[in-house]
Amino acid sequence: MTDATAPFDAATATAAYRSALQVIGAVEPRVADAIGAELADQRASLKLIASENYASPAVLLTMGNWFSDKYAEGTVGHRFYAGCQNVDTVEALAAEHARELFGAPHAYVQPHSGIDANLVAFWAVLATRVEAPALEKAGVRHVNELTDDDWRDLRHALGDQRMLGMSLDAGGHLTHGFRPNISGKMFEQSSYGTDPGTGLLDYDAVRERAREFRPLILMAGYSAYPRRVDFAKMREIADEVGATFVVDMAHFAGLVAGKVLTGDFDPVPHAHVTTTTTHKSLRGPRGGMVLAQPEYADAVDRGCPMVLGGPLPHVMAAKAVSFAEARRPEFAGYAQAVADNAQSLAEGLARRGATLVTGGTDNHLVLVDVTSFGLTGRQAESALLDAGIVTNRNAVPADPNGAWYTSGVRLGTPALTTRGFGAAEFDRTAELIVDVLAGTTPTATRDGGVSKAKYTTTDGLADRTRAAAAELLDAHPLYPGLDLD
Ligand code: DSN
């Protein structure tokens, strides 16, 4: 077990939250009640959503203040609004901590989310690789100086670019060029998948596809691939085909910050541009960030107002606090525990007969193929939720049940590791999960088939599992000593 939660003084945090809820409750008590209820719910469930975590009271409290009222379009020292000196302080601090934490030459901490961070990155690549040469060719410094014909040509050129990313069912992300996201409309997209036998990335196949497709952007990163990626090898491929290498490390940024993923597996030195969220394994506030090599830094800094609304200074302040936490030596212990716990979870599941995509994990997540239990991902997700285990359904490679019902559930260890779970607790969690999946049966349909959504579970299973989960949770309280009653 690790003492992973960022340290806080329970009596002070209790006083702060009680006062805050009193102030809020005086205006709209139902909101104050919902805030209290959310804490109670989070305390009472086994949270295994791979993209979630528990930020420290310091990070959370930093977001509730008057920075929220300030407009600050522009960048540090170069704002379109007056009176931004305090925003400059927190934005500069967040960027400095980020550069130090990740060894990055440049950090832009304004993106509001991961999607926003990716949009900033994509625009920065387009601006640097397509727009800037077009302006130079036309002999002008700004798009407003282009002739109408040049402007039309530039818009066509910007809209005629290619991105190669990991396919969704192999674990890639919607924002990596897929049609339900703007990136799929901005770019002609092609995908690389994983080896059908091993489930692992096949770098020779990526190289072959990159040679054929010649993308402007080679994208790496994932939200459901349970393995490390060799970013050095991916960069070689990008260089060979003249692509800009962009990595979205949203899921595993905490493992990079905590030096679990180093060398070829650390994206920051290899990517031209690295994007992330700040609230997943990194355990900061909800938000995004872009790290860039110097040649992309200026274009990245134009994220607002190019593709972002005004920055959220209260969140940038919280990013600064969370990065300061992540620079403490304890965070490396936390990150290592996240990865070790994922191993324990994977081993516990596999030992009890569950099928794991790629056979295991070497990051913070495990993808269980639940078809061996006769279930869809949707049934598994719902049955687990009934039993107090919060997961999310997820497609597996070449998923026969499509993106809605799916055939998998994704499990992640960052949140419960923050609560202090270790190998024994994750093994017990694996046991509970397998018990629920094995005790769940799809409902028969009238035409003699089986439902993809409905199911029944063995009598009393959900209650028994909840009780067993409560024992684990009670032994590892969330925000120990924080008492809102
Ligand atoms: N929603 C995040 C996840 O769950 O992986 C990424 O968008």
TrEMBL record:
Query: Sorted alphabetically, which InterPro entries does this protein's record hold?
Result: PyrdxlP-dep_Trfase, PyrdxlP-dep_Trfase_major, PyrdxlP-dep_Trfase_small, Ser_HO-MeTrfase, Ser_HO-MeTrfase-like, Ser_HO-MeTrfase_PLP_BS, SHMT-like_dom
Using the UniProt record, give the first listed, main subcellular location. Answer: cytoplasm
Under the heading HAMAP family, the entry gives: SHMT (MF_00051)
Serine hydroxymethyltransferase-like domain boundaries: 27-128, 161-433
Marked site, Plays an important role in substrate specificity, at H279
Q: Which positions carry N6-(pyridoxal phosphate)lysine? A: K280
Q: Which pathway does the protein contribute to?
A: One-carbon metabolism; tetrahydrofolate interconversion; Amino-acid biosynthesis; glycine biosynthesis; glycine from L-serine: step 1/1
- Which key words are in the record? Amino-acid biosynthesis, Cytoplasm, Methyltransferase, One-carbon metabolism, Pyridoxal phosphate, Transferase
Q: Which organism is it from?
A: Geodermatophilus sabuli
Q: What is this protein called?
A: Serine hydroxymethyltransferase
- Compartments in which it is found: Cytoplasm
Biological process GO annotation list?
glycine biosynthetic process from serine; methylation; tetrahydrofolate interconversion
Instruction: Tell me, in a sentence or two, what this protein's role is.
Output: Catalyzes the reversible interconversion of serine and glycine with tetrahydrofolate (THF) serving as the one-carbon carrier. This reaction serves as the major source of one-carbon groups required for the biosynthesis of purines, thymidylate, methionine, and other important biomolecules. Also exhibits THF-independent aldolase activity toward beta-hydroxyamino acids, producing glycine and aldehydes, via a retro-aldol mechanism.
Q: Name one GO molecular function term.
A: glycine hydroxymethyltransferase activity
Q: Which family does it belong to?
A: Belongs to the SHMT family.
Q: How does it assemble?
A: Homodimer.
State a single Pfam family of this protein: SHMT
- Summarize where (6S)-5,6,7,8-tetrahydrofolate binds, as residue positions: L168, G172, H173, L174
Q: Which cofactor does it need?
A: pyridoxal 5'-phosphate
Catalytic activities? (6R)-5,10-methylene-5,6,7,8-tetrahydrofolate + glycine + H2O = (6S)-5,6,7,8-tetrahydrofolate + L-serine
Protein EC:
2.1.2.1
Can you cite an annotated GO cellular component?
cytosol
* Enzyme class, spelled out: transferase
